[in-house]
């Protein structure tokens, strides 16, 4: 099973032939070649000695890296990312303060096609009423048109269709069903942004990440309970997180790493698209529709800056005893060893 880990630092990248992103913060500008990237580190790589000790001990012991890496590696949908996106990942790993100014050109027709075929064939349609099989008819012409609209700024996000599912406690959970083209573009953007944020997210974050899932989080939890002397367990959940996420702070958090105004404009469109319920449109002041393709990544980015970085510093500098953290989306389980009450 996957260990609980963070990504490690490597030496600075050498200038290349084409710009992937430019750091306009305190780090120097960096160009990264998109043509050839030997020794690409896989998405689920283990870390070296740079990791904090507490992070090193969470979850299973280290997994040995594979030798001889390929030029591409799987995305969350199982597709292979391009060498250009591998360059984005390399730059994100080696320049932790870089803000990427040029990302939308990675949203190609090929990536849109891969995103389309990664969607569920039998998923319910959104407000557009278009099913996966209907869209597949004349697919190439549709994707060419969609690609052109996205890149010239003519793409318009449609509102999500509001549906409800029953929860175990009897309450209803609102879900948003996006239009098919919104799903395609969102999945393509997620594939691009994952190359950056998978280098930033901390090791104890498990929800909605490539190569990580419920079983990995449960494995890390059971390993800690069996191998460590645990005094306290805190099971925490953020009530109505997706519905109450602050949109303005969401964009501010994204801007720490993303400085491409076209990508940020797409995210703003999805946040402002609103919902359709019983034929009536509304735009909630807060939140992102739970169930949309982009929402899990936005949630992880929000919680990375709003929770993960804070709790990581807190447990290292101020906690009494050792604190191990596991977070799956908006659910977390800090476990503590020591004599004082936790948090």
Characterise the protein shown here:
37% of the residues are buried. This protein has 11 helices and 10 strands. Helix 2 crosses helix 6, helix 3 (109-118) crosses helix 6 and helix 9 (247-254) packs across helix 11. The model is unreliable at 1-57, 59-74 and 339-343 (pLDDT under 50). The strands form 3 sheets. A 4-stranded mixed beta sheet has the order 2-1-5-6, with no helix packed on it. A 3-stranded antiparallel beta sheet has the order 3-10-7, with no helix packed on it. It is globular. The protein has helices at 53-56, 83-94, 109-118, 132-136, 139-152, 180-197, 214-227, 241-244, 247-254, 261-272, 295-317, and strands spanning 160-166, 172-177, 232-233, 236-237, 275-277, 280-282, 322-324, 327-328, 331-332, 335-337. 36% of the residues lie in helices and 10% in strands. A hairpin with a 5-residue loop joins strand 1 and strand 2.
| Widest sheet, order of strands | 2-1-5-6
Structure classification: alpha+beta
Q: What is the mean pLDDT?
A: 77
The number of E-state strands comes to: 10
* Amount of helix: 25-40%
How much strand content do the residues show?
5-15%
Radius of gyration: 21 Å
Low-pLDDT runs: 1-57, 59-74, 339-343
Largest sheet: 4 strands, mixed
Order of helices and strands: HHHHHEEHHEEHHHEEHEEEE
């Amino acid at each position: 099973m996957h260990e609980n880990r963070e990504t490690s630092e490597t030496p600075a990248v050498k200038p290349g032939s084409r710009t992937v992103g430019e750091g306009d913060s305190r780090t120097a500008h960096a160009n990264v070649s998109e043509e050839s990237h030997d020794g690409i580190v896989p998405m689920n790589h283990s870390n070296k000695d740079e990791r904090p000790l507490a992070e090193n001990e969470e979850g299973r012991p280290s997994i040995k890296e594979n030798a001889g890496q390929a030029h591409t590696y799987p995305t969350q949908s199982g597709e292979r990312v391009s060498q250009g996106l591998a360059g984005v990942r390399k730059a994100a790993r080696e320049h932790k303060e870089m803000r990427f100014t040029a990302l939308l050109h990675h949203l190609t027709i090929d990536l849109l096609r891969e995103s389309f075929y990664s969607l569920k064939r039998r998923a319910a349609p959104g407000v557009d009423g278009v099913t996966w099989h209907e869209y597949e008819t004349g697919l190439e012409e549709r994707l060419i048109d969609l690609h052109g609209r996205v890149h010239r700024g003519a793409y318009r996000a449609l509102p999500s269709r509001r549906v409800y599912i029953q929860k175990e406690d009897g309450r209803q959970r609102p879900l948003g069903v996006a239009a098919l083209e919104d799903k395609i573009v969102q999945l393509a953007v997620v594939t691009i942004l994952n190359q950056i944020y998978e280098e930033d997210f901390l090791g104890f974050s498990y929800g909605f990440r490539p190569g990580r899932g419920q079983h990995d989080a449960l494995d890390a939890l059971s390993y800690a309970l069996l191998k460590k002397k645990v005094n306290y367990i805190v099971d925490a959940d953020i009530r109505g997180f997706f519905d109450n996420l602050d949109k303005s702070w969401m964009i501010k958090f994204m801007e720490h790493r993303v400085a491409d105004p076209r990508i940020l404009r797409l995210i703003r469109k999805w946040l402002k698209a609103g919902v359709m319920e019983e034929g009536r449109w509304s735009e909630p002041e807060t939140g992102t529709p739970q169930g949309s393709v982009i929402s899990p990544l936005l949630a992880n980015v929000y919680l990375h800056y709003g929770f993960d970085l804070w709790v990581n510093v807190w447990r290292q500098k101020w906690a009494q005893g050792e604190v191990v953290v596991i977070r799956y989306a908006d659910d977390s389980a800090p476990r503590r060893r020591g004599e004082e009450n936790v948090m």
